Amino acid sequence: MAAQACIKELKRLLGDERCLAEPGRLLSYECDALTHFKSMPSAVVLPESTDEVQQVVRICARHEVPFTPRGAGTGLSGGAVPAEGGVLIECSRMRRVLEVDVENRIARVEPGVINAHLSQQVAEHGLAYAPDPSSQTVCTLGGNVAENSGGPHCLKHGATTNHILALRMVMPDGEVVELGTPVAGAAGLDLRGVVLGSEGTLGIVTEITCRLVPVPECIETLLAPFDSMGAACTAVSRIVAAGIIPAALEALDERTIAAVEASVYRAGYPDDAAAVILVELDGHPARVEAEREQIHAIFRDMGALSIETARDPEHAEQLWKGRKGAFGAMGRLAPDLYVQDAVVPRSKLPEVLPEIGRICDGLGLKLANVFHAGEGNLHPNISYDGRDAAEVEKVVQAGQQIIELCLSVGGVLSGEHGIGLEKQGFMKLMFSDDDLESMARVRAAFNPTGILNPGKILPTPRACVEVKPVHRLPGVDAS
Amino acid sequence: MTEVFSNTDELLRAALGADAVYVVTEGDAPGALPTPTIVVAPASAEQVAEAVRVATDAGVGIVPVGGDTAPRRSRNEDFPCVALSLERMSGVVEHAVEDLVFTAQAGLVLTEAQAAIAAHGHRVPLAPPLAARATLGGIVACSAEGPTRNAYGSVRDQVLGIQVVHGDGRISRAGGRVVKNVTGYDLCRLYTGSRGVLGVITELTLRLRPIEPAACRLAWRFPRIEDAWNAGMTLRRDIPALYGLHAARGTATDGISGEGAALVATLRGPEAFVEALGASCWEHDLGAASQEVLQPDAVPAIIGPVSALDAWLRVCVLPADGGRLLTTLAQRIGDDADLVLDVLGGVCDVTHEDPGFLDPVDETALGADLEPLCAQVDRPGDPGFHLRRLHLFPSTRPGGVNVMQALMRSLDPAGVLNPGRYEVAP
C-alpha cells in the first residue's frame, strides 16, 4: 500500500512518462550488467533536476519506500539492482554539461552525462576527461562516481576518485549538500572521498565537478606478443620497477586473442602468441621516446616475439579496439560470461595467473584472461552456459577459489567493479568484524534508516530493507 | 597537575606499563597542550586502544601527536587531554619493492622512510611542512600538502591502506596493499585529513614513486610577483609536463640572481626529457628581466616545503584566480610578507618574520575579498584559526556538517579523540 501511495505521488510529480510503473516497462530495470541478480522495482522515475531528485527522495522517505539510483546500468556487481518493490531513480535524463572552465581545467556536469561525451565536448579546448572504463561510450559519470570506475588509463592518470573535485548530492532525507571543492585545501572531513565508490548507498549525486587534463602532446601505442604469460607479466613488473608509469599497460591471453581475432573487434594480434602486452605511453615526445627505448629493451630481454608500434592514430585505435572489445568478443565462446574482478600485488601476477588456470582447468571451465596488468587488476573471464545448473555451480566454485587465491597473496576483492550484491559474501574474507563495523557506521552517518540502496556492499543485514535476488549464483551470500 | 590528571597518569601506567607514560612539566608540551601534560607512548595498536579506553573511562581527551608539527587547535581548551605520542611506533612493516608499495607504523618520520627506500630508487611522494620531523601518521592525519602535489597528487592519493584505533577502542583497517582497490567504502580518504577525530592512525600503506633520474630548475626574475604569475600562466598553458611552477617574492627568492620577484620551473624525468623540456621553457619569451638555470643541488626556499609554522598563512584558489589573489593580499596584508604561489595548483603560502603580522589585518575585509574566489584559508600556527575558517565563508563552506558530526559521534562516541577540533555549528 505504501508503495502504491508513493507511486501515486511520484506520478503526480513527474507524470506517466517519467514515472514508469507498468510491469512491462519495468523489466529492463530489474538488473544491471551483472544479470545474475534481478529484482523488480515498483516504479522507475526519470528526474531531470536536483530539485526533482530531492522531491522524489522526500516522497519515498515519507512513504518508507526504499530507493536506488541508477546510471546506464552498466555496473558489473549488482550495485544498481533495485530493492524488491522499491523505486529506481534513473539519472540518465540529467545529461547537461553545465560549465566548462577551460583555464582552470574543470567541468561541471550532471550525472547522466556519458563518460566519452565529456571528452568529446571538451576536445576542442585540448582537454579530456581521463578515466575510461571499457563501457565509456554508454556509462554515465554519475555511475562512474558511484562505482569509482577505473579503466585502462587509470595506471598513470588515476581512477574516478582522482578526477572528481566536488559533488552536489541529495541525502537520503532529501537534504541537498555540497561536498568537496574545486579549490585545493578544503576544510573538514573528506566526505567527497567516501562518497566516491559508495555504490549509491550514501546519497544521490546530482552534480559533478570534474578535473580535466590536457590532451597529451604525444601518444604511442606498443604491442608485444610473448610465448608465455609468465614472461609477459614479468616484463610488466620490470617496466614499473624501472620507474616507468605508462598511461596503460594491459595484457590479453591466448584464448582472449583468439576470441578477439575471430570477432568484429579484430585488432591484428598475432594468433600464435600465448599473451600480448599492450602499452600506451603519453606525454612530452622526449619522455615518450626515452620510455619507449627502455620498454623495448625490457621486452627484448624478456623474449618478446616482436615489438610493434602503432603507425598512426588509426592503427592505435585498431589495437585498442581488440582490448576494449574483448568482453564482447567472448560472447562467441559461450552464451554467458562471468567477469571476475580482483587485484593482486603486481609482482604476484606470474604466480597467480597459472594458479587461476589450474582452478578453471580442474573444474573443466573455459577461462580467458584480459586485465590491467600494470595495476595487478585481474579479470578472469569464465565462459559458460547459464542454462546448465551444474556448470553454473562450477563457475561459482571457481569464482570463490579465485577470490580466495587473490586474497591469500595480499590482494583485494575488487579493483573497479565494486562489491554490490555480488561480493558481499566475500567481505568477511578480507575484513574483520571491526573493519566492517566502521564501514557500517560510516554508512549509517549518511543513511541512518538504510532506505537508500539497501542491501549493498556490507555482508550482514545492516539496513532496514534487504534485497532478495530473484536469481543469485548459489554460494554467493547476497543476504 | 589536577587530581583527574594524576589519576589518569596512574591508570595509564597500570594499563600500559611505566615505560609508556611520562609527564612533561615545563617548556613545550606535545600537541601544544598546557603543562604539565601526561604523554602516553604506546608501542602497538592494541596499546593505543588500551590508552583510549583508559582515557574514555577517566573522562579525559586524547590528542594524537606525531612529529608535533601541527599544534592542536581546539575551541574547548578546558577539556583535559593527554597527548598520545606515536614515537614508539616507528617501524617499517614492509617495502614491497617491485610493487612500489610501503607499509609502516604511523610514527615513522618521513625523512627516515625516505632514507629507508631511497636505495631502491623510490620515494614517498610527500613534502609536508616541517618535513624533517613530520611523521607519516601526522602528515596523513593533517593531509599536510606540499610542493609534490601537482606531480603526484594529494596526500589522500598516496594512502592505499590504513589502520586506526577509534574512540571506542576498536581497531579497524581499510584499504589494502595494492594500487587499485574499490572494496567497500573508501575510508582511507575519509581518515586522511580528519585530524585524529575519527581514529588514531597507527599504520599506513603508501604508494611509492620512482625517483626521477634527472632534475633541473629554471628561474626568471620579474619586477613584481604579479608579472611572475602571469608568465607562469603562459608556461602552464603551453607546457603541461612541468613538475612544479612557483611565483614568489621576498626572502623566498634568495639564491636566485637578480632582484624583485621570481618564477621557478622545476622539471623532473628522464635526462633527454628534462633537456628538451628545459629548452622549450627557455625559448619562451616571458619578458623577464633575467633568467638562469639553477644549480642542481640548489633548493631555493621558493620550492621548498614551509619550514616554520609561526607566521604562515595558506590561501588556496583556482589557478586562474592567482592574479586576483595576489592583488587582494597586497591590499589587505601589504607588500612586506613573503609570498610563494604554486601557479599550477593555486596554493599561496604567505609568511613573515613577525608571527603577529596578521594582527592588524582586518579579517572580515580579507574574508569578504576572498569569498568570491571560493578561497580556502588556513593558518596552521594559530590555535583557533582552523575553526574560524569554517565559518569564514559560509556560502562556500563544504556541506554536510551534520554528516561530519554524525561520523564523529559514531566512530568516537565519547568524543575523546582530539576534542573540540571540529566543534562547528551546523
Note the main attributes of this structure.
heterodimer, A: 479 residues, alpha+beta, Uridine Diphospho-n-acetylenolpyruvylglucosamine Reductase, domain 2, Uridine Diphospho-n-acetylenolpyruvylglucosamine Reductase, domain 3, Vanillyl-alcohol Oxidase, Chain A, domain 3, 3 domains, seven-stranded antiparallel sheet, five-stranded antiparallel sheet, 20 strands, globular, disordered C terminus, B: 426 residues, Alpha-Beta Plaits, 4 domains, eight-stranded antiparallel sheet, 13 helices
Q: What's the short version?
A:
Chain A is α+β, with helices and mostly antiparallel strands.
Structural account:
- The complex is a heterodimer of chains A (479) and B (426).
- Chain A folds into 3 domains: 2-90, Uridine Diphospho-n-acetylenolpyruvylglucosamine Reductase, domain 2 (2-Layer Sandwich); 97-214, Uridine Diphospho-n-acetylenolpyruvylglucosamine Reductase, domain 3 (2-Layer Sandwich); 218-408, Vanillyl-alcohol Oxidase, Chain A, domain 3.
- Chain A contains 16 helices and 20 strands.
- Chain A has helices at residues 2-14, 23-26, 50-63, 115-122, 141-147, 154-157, 191-195, 229-241, 254-261, 285-301, 313-324, 326-329, 349-362, 389-408, 427-430, 433-446, and strands at 19-20, 43-45, 67-70, 87-90, 97-101, 106-109, 127-128, 164-170, 176-180, 204-211, 213-214, 218-226, 248-253, 275-283, 308-309, 336-339, 342-343, 366-371, 377-378, 380-384.
- Chain A has a 7-stranded antiparallel β-sheet, with helices on both faces. A 5-stranded antiparallel β-sheet of chain A has the order 5-6-10-8-9.
- In chain A, helix 1 packs antiparallel against helix 3 (50-63), helix 8 (229-241) crosses helix 10 (285-301) and helix 13 runs antiparallel to helix 14 (389-408).
- Residues 462-479 of chain A have low confidence and may be disordered.
- By secondary structure, chain B is an alpha+beta fold.
- Chain B is globular and about 70 Å long.
- The two termini of chain B are 35 Å apart.
